[in-house]
């Protein structure tokens, strides 16, 4: 069984059906990138996977444990799934170091000293050890996003979900975040990434998933999707997004 | 626990209610005029007038209204100036709310953007014309939410005047309650009457706020 | 006013100060009660299901709409009527504390909402329970945001402790009235003195809260609110 299995996921908000039967699988160590026009349910899909949003129908397994079962300890599941938000959502009142350490201390019950040592190592990993004592408001957007990646990494996640991690960043700050993400992907982390950064998708994705109107239109390896998509709509979207964001992402 | 409330007590409570409303209206009006002058003094003047206005605001905001009421009623009497309880009540509460209203006016006037005054001056208006025709119409709208709160606050706080012998709603309630040993019932009814009054005033002021709202002009809160 | 009048007033200062200490005790009691209840009410309003949330809104509305004086009379004399052995002091702490809890809950609710749902989501995403998220992420921020409006509530209830005199608590204002009752010439200076005591306490309190606010300010994060009278 794959590390992550999503089966026939449905979600509606009022009259709008945001997810209409999404199924996907992610093997350990794989990186998959979800692309598609905004408002097509990509973020909702990610939020359903760790049940920050409750899906209406469908089942999800993580490493053989059913996430959607009411008997599952959802807090334990969430601590095993990293989540990187579009607008970082660092804890405003805590330093970078404490942001990374908080989950270790309160959720994993790691002793404080140990947790802070671990947190510092994770900050080093994203190149921000020197900013350990800075508060979020004192960091640039790119730095904040790297801290939030460190916060996810510190929990030793089996999987990290990225919800448009670079969309809120000024163009000159996008590179530093993508660099960290590429390193993670190459280091064998399992990642599901919603993004418009096609350069990133080409470089590290094992598979690209094109989503629109709550369904998966097409999925496949980047070389296939970029050069020879099966569905015309995929080609059209890829052309537009490449024009808009540029080739390199 | 048997409860007893006689309907024949209501007319007297009604009279008390009338006094409460009159007292509130009187002190709020005095406070609005005086408060506005204080705000203007604190924004547009320097020197003694500014310091006087500031000291006034500090004193009345920093000390208990109950003490202020007794200073006016008994303190002035000690100096030979005897005021009726009603007059003392109106003056003390008016002086007090003036200090608070001054701060709300000041905040609202200062919230009107500087460019508005500049634009008015550029048309050839005098400073006072600019204040009167441009700043104030905006500031008065901005101040309304805070001012509504103040009105409700004073409405409730007039309940202290029974301590200098005024038969307001609370005072009448106290008389009836102690005469019949029905404290709980009478005070509960008094509380409900205040609640209803507060609700009524709040809704009326909300309506007013909506009516005079100008698109694009934010509220003070 | 004669010299002997002044003498009487000066001799009254120690007893006035001992009365002021009672005001401080009422203040501490009512603030603590209002703080705990206020946070609970705010949390219920923001996070609980509809019915408890609506009840909490009703609670807040009731205690904000009834004059403090009436609450004092209702709770003290109302309970005495049913032979509940309650002292004026305790009645004052409860009545003023309940009222303050309604105002404080409004402050905390605003602050919790200002912290925002995203911080909650981030906390949940690392595996925290809702209670943990509230305890370690939401409240530490909300309490900081609350300090400026809370200072207003503080100065307000500080002055309102004098209302306790109406149900027989022997606090500073009541003691001043005793002094004045024996010598009417002292009315203005005695009440003025009480007023000055409160000015000093108000400044002291605001200074302390200012220190608190600076001590817990989050670097780089601006937060200031102008409050109204409560």
Give structural attributes:
heterotrimer; A: 249 residues; alpha/beta; six-stranded mixed β-sheet; four-stranded antiparallel β-sheet; C: 230 residues; mainly alpha; 8 helices; 80% helix
User: What is the overall number of helices of chain A?
Assistant: 9
| Separation, N- and C-terminal Cα atoms of chain A | 33 Å
Biggest protein-protein contact in the assembly? B-C, 48 and 45 residues
Which class of chain C in CATH terms? Answer: Mainly Alpha
Supply Rg of chain C.
21 Å
What does the overall shape of chain A look like? globular
- Helix proportion of chain A: 25-40%
- Classify the beta-strand content of chain A into a percent band: 15-25%
CATH superfamily of chain C: MetI-like
Describe the model:
The complex is a heterotrimer of chains A (249), B (221) and C (230). Chain A is built from nine helices and ten strands. The longest helix of chain A has 16 residues, at 171-186. In chain A, helix 6 links the parallel strand 7 (159-163) and strand 8. Chain A has helices at residues 42-49, 74-80, 96-106, 112-125, 141-154, 171-186, 198-204, 222-227, 232-245, and strands spanning 4-13, 16-26, 31-35, 57-62, 65-66, 81-84, 159-163, 191-194, 207-212, 215-220. Chain A is α/β, with parallel strands linked by helices and 249 residues long. In chain A, the strands form two sheets. A six-stranded mixed sheet of chain A has the order 6-7-8-3-9-10, sandwiched between helices. In chain A, strands 2-1-4-5 form a four-stranded antiparallel sheet, covered by helices on one side. The mean pLDDT of chain A is 93. Chain B has eight helices and no strands. The longest helix of chain B has 35 residues, at 10-44. Chain B has a single domain (3-212), classed as MetI-like fold. The termini of chain B are far apart. The mean pLDDT of chain B is 91. Chain C is an all-alpha fold. Chain C has a single domain (3-216), classed as MetI-like (MetI-like fold), CATH 1.10.3720.10. In chain C, 80% of the residues lie in helices and 0% in strands. Chain C has eight helices and no strands. Chain C is elongated. The model of chain C is unreliable at 223-227 (pLDDT under 50). Classes of the chains: A alpha/beta (249), B mainly alpha (221), C mainly alpha (230). Chains B and C meet through helix 2, helix 3, helix 4, helix 6 and helix 7 of B and helix 3, helix 6, helix 7 and helix 8 of C.
């Amino acid at each position: 069984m794959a590390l992550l299995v999503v089966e026939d996921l449905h979600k509606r908000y009022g009259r709008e059906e945001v997810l209409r039967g999404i199924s996907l699988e992610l093997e350990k160590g794989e990186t998959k990138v979800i692309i598609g026009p905004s408002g097509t349910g990509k973020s909702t899909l990610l939020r359903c996977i760790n049940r920050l949003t409750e899906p209406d129908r469908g089942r999800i397994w993580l490493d053989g444990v059913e996430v959607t079962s009411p008997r599952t300890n959802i807090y334990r599941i969430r601590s095993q799934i990293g989540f990187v938000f579009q607008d970082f959502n660092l804890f405003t009142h805590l330093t970078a170091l404490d942001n990374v350490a908080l989950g270790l201390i309160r959720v994993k019950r790691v002793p404080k000293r140990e947790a802070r040592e671990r947190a510092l190592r994770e900050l080093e990993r994203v190149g921000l050890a020197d900013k350990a004592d800075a508060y979020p408001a004192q960091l640039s957007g790119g730095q904040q996003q790297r801290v939030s990646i460190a916060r996810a990494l510190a929990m030793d996640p089996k999987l990290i979900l990225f919800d448009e991690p670079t969309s809120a960043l000024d163009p000159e700050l996008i590179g530093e975040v993508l660099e960290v993400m590429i390193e993670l992907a190459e280091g064998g982390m399992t990642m599901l990434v919603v993004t418009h950064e096609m350069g990133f998708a080409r470089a590290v994705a094992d598979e690209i998933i094109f989503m629109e109107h709550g369904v998966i239109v097409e999925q496949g390896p980047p070389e296939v999707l970029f050069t020879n998509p099966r569905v015309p709509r995929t080609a059209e979207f890829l052309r537009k997004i490449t024009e808009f964001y540029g080739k390199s992402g | 626990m048997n409860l007893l409330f006689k309907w024949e007590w209501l007319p007297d409570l009604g009279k008390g209610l009338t006094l409460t409303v009159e007292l509130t209206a009187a002190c709020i009006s005095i406070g609005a005029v005086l408060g506005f002058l204080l705000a203007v003094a604190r924004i547009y003047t320097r020197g003694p007038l500014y310091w006087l206005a500031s000291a006034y605001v500090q004193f009345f905001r920093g000390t208990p209204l109950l003490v202020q009421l007794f200073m006016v009623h008994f303190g002035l009497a000690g100096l030979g100036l005897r005021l009726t309880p009603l007059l003392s009540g109106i003056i003390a509460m008016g002086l007090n709310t003036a200090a608070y209203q001054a701060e709300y006016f000041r905040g609202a006037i200062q919230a009107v953007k500087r460019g508005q005054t500049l634009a008015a001056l550029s048309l050839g208006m005098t400073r006072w014309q600019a204040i009167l025709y441009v700043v104030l119409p905006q500031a008065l709208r901005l101040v309304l939410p805070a001012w509504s709160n103040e009105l409700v606050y004073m409405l409730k706080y007039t309940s202290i005047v029974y301590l200098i012998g005024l038969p307001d709603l609370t005072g009448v309630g106290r008389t009836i309650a102690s005469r019949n040993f029905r404290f709980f019932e009478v005070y509960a009814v008094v509380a409900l009457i205040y609640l209803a009054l507060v609700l009524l005033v709040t809704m009326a002021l909300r309506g007013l706020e909506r009516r005079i709202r100008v698109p694009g002009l934010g509220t003070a809160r | 006013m004669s010299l002997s009048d002044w003498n009487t007033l000066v001799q009254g200062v120690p007893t006035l100060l001992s009365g002021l200490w009672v005001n401080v005790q009422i203040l501490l009691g009512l603030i603590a009660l209002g703080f705990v209840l206020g946070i609970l009410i705010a949390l219920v309003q923001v996070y609980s299901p509809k019915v408890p949330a609506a009840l909490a809104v009703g609670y807040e509305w009731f205690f904000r709409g009834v004059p403090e004086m009436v609450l004092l009379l209702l709770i003290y004399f109302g309970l005495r009527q049913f032979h509940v052995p309650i002292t004026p002091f305790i009645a004052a702490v409860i009545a003023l504390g309940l009222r303050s809890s309604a105002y404080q809950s409004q402050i905390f609710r605003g602050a919790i909402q200002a912290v925002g749902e995203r911080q909650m989501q981030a906390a949940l995403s690392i595996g925290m329970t809702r209670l943990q998220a509230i305890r370690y992420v939401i409240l530490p921020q909300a309490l900081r945001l609350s300090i400026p409006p809370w200072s207003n509530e503080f100065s307000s209830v500080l002055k309102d402790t004098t209302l306790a005199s109406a149900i027989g608590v022997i606090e500073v204002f009541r003691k001043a009235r005793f002094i004045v009752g024996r010598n009417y010439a002292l009315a203005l200076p005695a009440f003025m003195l009480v007023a000055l005591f409160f000015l000093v306490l108000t400044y002291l309190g605001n200074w302390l809260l200012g220190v608190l606010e600076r001590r817990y300010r989050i670097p780089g994060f601006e937060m200031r609110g102008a409050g109204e009278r409560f």
